[in-house]
Specification:
CATH class of the largest domain: Mainly Beta
Low-confidence stretches: 185-189
Helix content: 25-40%
CATH superfamily of the largest domain: Rieske [2Fe-2S] iron-sulphur domain
Mean pLDDT: 83
Radius of gyration: 32 Å
Strand content: 15-25%
Strand order of the largest sheet: 5-6-7-8
Number of strands: 10
CATH architecture of the largest domain: 3-layer Sandwich
Largest sheet: 4 strands, antiparallel
Length: 189
């Protein structure tokens, strides 16, 4: 009987150690598996640059002065945001469509109720050069590479550019904020 008690006395603490080692090994394997799997799972998600490249871009219009052109980038493309002066709005509305290479009305180039704002892509439609603002004969942009000229609302007036500066999808969120990359909006669109 003394032998049985001795065996039971030594079995209890050893069983506890064995259980502890089993649990510790299992926990270590779980943590190790998670540590190995985490980078693999994370690598499947798009990176921040990819997410930002397609995400809409908010632009605060409040600091932009009359006649000023601000350049922003959306999806890796240059975008011109221009606040037209009252004179430019009046002059651009008066241009006959017959004077244009790619006829487009003033109203088709701006959002209704926001006549003083032009938002357009910032690359010449000839070969993709970047036109210089407030230059040329038409109050707009002039391409330094090949001589195309655009008026203040981005309509091509002198070639070789075949078409107007394209308008990206955008919407007015408020009178002083636009979201480039979305159509519609809360204010007049």
């Amino acid at each position: 009987m003394a032998d049985t008690m001795a065996t039971e006395a030594t079995a209890g603490p050893q069983g506890t150690k064995r259980d502890f080692l089993f649990l510790a090994t299992g926990a270590g394997l779980a943590v190790g598996t998670a540590a190995v799997a985490w980078p693999f799972v994370a690598s499947m998600a798009p990176d921040a640059a990819t997410i930002a490249a397609g995400a809409p871009l908010d632009v605060d219009l409040s600091p932009i002065q009359d006649g000023q052109i601000v350049n922003v980038f959306w999806r890796g493309k240059l975008i011109f945001v221009r606040k037209l002066t009252e004179k430019e709005v009046t002059d651009m509305k008066a241009v006959p469509l017959s004077d244009m290479i790619d006829p487009a009305s003033f109203e088709s180039r701006v959002k209704k109720g926001h006549d003083q704002w032009l938002v357009s892509y910032g690359n010449c439609t000839h070969l993709g050069c970047v036109p210089i603002g407030h230059s040329g004969n038409y109050e707009g942009w002039s391409c330094p590479c090949h001589g195309s000229q655009f008026d203040a609302v981005g309509r091509v007036r002198r070639g070789p550019a075949p078409t107007n500066l394209p308008i990206p999808p955008y919407a007015f969120e408020t009178d002083t904020k636009i979201k480039i990359g979305e159509e519609g909006g809360k204010a007049a669109a």
